Amino acid sequence: MRLILHIGMGKTGTSSIQKALEASQDKLAETGCHYLGMWLDEPGEPFAGFQGLPKLFASSPEQQKALASSFVARMHAKEKEEGYNTFVFSNEALFEQA
Prior knowledge:
flat
């Protein structure tokens, strides 16, 4: 399983890449690739969406480790059940969290 993180500075074409990934999901799936989107919805509430990202980064290290383990387990399940072997996540807002 591969996870590709596309994390760039704002105003460098990231929105165009995200739109292309979103529009190409069927073609990506044919190659075993799944676009996860921009907001890392996989951990679920309350960490999903635009409002959830700051909550994710503000959570405790223990909670972040648990969420990471849960995320990896979900990706392995998608790999087994749906045949994906590559996952792509793209969000320039992550750069600001460094």
